[in-house]
Amino acid sequence: MPERIGDYSLTSVLAEDDHSTVHAATSPAGARVAITLFKTRLRDPDEFLTRIENLQSGPAYHSASIVDAGTSGGMPYVVSEFVEGPSLAAHVAEHGPLTGAALHRLAIATMTALVPVHQAGDAHGALRPAAVLLGPDGPRVTGAGLARAVDESAKDEEWVRAYTTQKVRSPAFEAPEQFRGEPAGQAADMFSWAAMMAFAATGRSPFEGGSPSATMNKVLHGEPDLSGLPEPPRDVVADCLAKEPGARPTASQALMRLVGHAPLTIERDDIPTPLPAPAPPPPKQPRRFGLLIGAAAVAIVVLAGGGGHVIARSTTPVTTRVASTATAPGVSTVSASAEPTPPPEPTSRVKVPGVDMTLLEHPSDATTLTAYRKGEDTYVRNGALGEFTKLPLKNAEPVLSPDGRTLAVFTPAVVGFTGDRPFTVSLEPYGTTERPTWSRDGKQLLLTAVTDGKPSGFVLIDMATQRATLVDTDDESTGGEVGYAWLPDGTGVAVGYQPERDGKTGHGVRFRGLDGAEQKSMHWVGEMYGRRMFAPSGRHFVTYCPSGGTFCVWDSATGVRMASIGIFYNDAFLSGWYDDAHLIVADPREKTHKIVAMDLRGRTPRVLAEISAKDDTDDLLLYYTRS
């Protein structure tokens, strides 16, 4: 083994076959890298380097990124990031096939790696179990486009002979057209991916014949054995194993099917961003609706099945605290509010799947149900007043951005985003997280970090930089409870806490900056409602009353109580605000339970939904989005 390739010091051989050797190496800066040295001499080195530069410029969703490339002794090499973890082939050999969520995670992640390669007009060209590494932050596809880049620049007899020999020795992951001398194009990638998924689920090729020649014959003429492959992803795998290239789905189509093809297609125009100072709500603007996102973006959503990738992570510890000086307001006189305008009468009744629930809706509703969960199953809406589709994930929490263009799908392991620049963030580095909620400008997603059941900090995911930042606080040791909510102007967060006063424990709300430092607190307002505590205008927030009512509404700036709503029945669950004058509250008193818009005097001028008592249980969660 040579000691160096270019500027890189070689440390060991990771893998070798007839046409390449993969080395572990160290960069001049001391970083670990992987170097693939191809066993051929280039006819046109410039053409090779140009193709590698094109591969570098594309997005690296679940692919090992390319660091460098060059030639050594006339032979081309490519330097990639080092992924700590075994190959899929090695993992299956040592631990057996993948099952359940791990298999579904592998299917989505590897297909997500193919989509941008294919969209750029390229192909992987050599997808097989040895080319997938199971890294600590999810599966990574290696070598995308490299064999093809070398093939286009080499074409010498040595390379052709090595590549042909490799196909004969290992035919299980080659597409039928490759045995007919056709190049390994995008359709061949789909066939190779499907054969690889069958191997991952069963430990064997779906065309296993006992010998290379028998396997090749089955690839060309036989039917695949998919008896050990579960659904998902069995149907997608079966279609990708079609003999004719034109009969196979594209990578984008396959990815959409793997994730259930359930995007929200809501588009809202001219939604004003609230001003830092509370202000009257702006006039309602008309809404228009259209398609939200493309195939690749849809697929990224449900990478929340696991194995997402973090583009960057930073942690901001809190080293200074600002003591609260806020005191409870004295006796205040609040003038009676004007009679609120009732919500419009419903014009449609919409039955939803998976739950015995009917929505009563009007096109100009201020707030719309855009998703719901029943037990482990999650349903999202395809359009403003359209149908609901079940996501292929368990225990997923969908949160639609204020402008309706981006859907964040949260699971304990990862959160995925749709949009113009879809991406995913692994949540494993941050421990337990919960309660995803958008900033009002849709630029950041907030998550509550939890330690021993108490809020201990928050994670901010920035949409522009796709970076996640953990902000540590001392809430877990100073009475923190519930979780974090955005302040209306986006400059900080609110969190519940339990203050000790006169030897008694109460409930209040703390206000913190985005650096985690405490700015003020309102110890008198009662138990925090949660992430949807602030009214649409931001002028008020709601809590569970400390006394004298069920729900209390407070002035956001002063902490003066604006209204107390007394409810005299059990299980009056609060789901947030319909508009500034109405809360969304559950009313389970009748045989058919209702979700109602309740004004701040406790009146219910509008029913928003009807739910059968058998389905209106603690595991039914409703997600409303401001229109």
Short structural summary:
This protein is an alpha+beta fold and 627 residues long. Helix content is 18%, strand content 33%.
Q: CATH H-level name of the domain at 4-259... which superfamily? A: Transferase(Phosphotransferase) domain 1
Strand order of the largest sheet: 1-2-3-4-6-5
What integer value in Å does the Rg equal? 28 Å
Helical content class = 10-25%
CATH topology category name of the domain at 4-259: Transferase(Phosphotransferase), domain 1
In this structure, how is the largest beta sheet organized?
Answer: 6 strands, antiparallel
Please identify, by name, the CATH architecture of the domain at 4-259.
Orthogonal Bundle
- Report the β-strand fraction as a percent range: 25-35%
- Based on DSSP secondary structure assignment, what is the total number of beta strands? 37
Mean pLDDT: 81
Query: Class of the domain at 4-259 in CATH?
Result: Mainly Alpha
Unreliable residue stretches: 162-169, 261-325, 330-336
Structural category: alpha+beta
Terminal Cα span: 64 Å
What sort of overall outline do the alpha carbons produce when their principal axes are compared? elongated
Q: Count the helices. How many?
A: 11
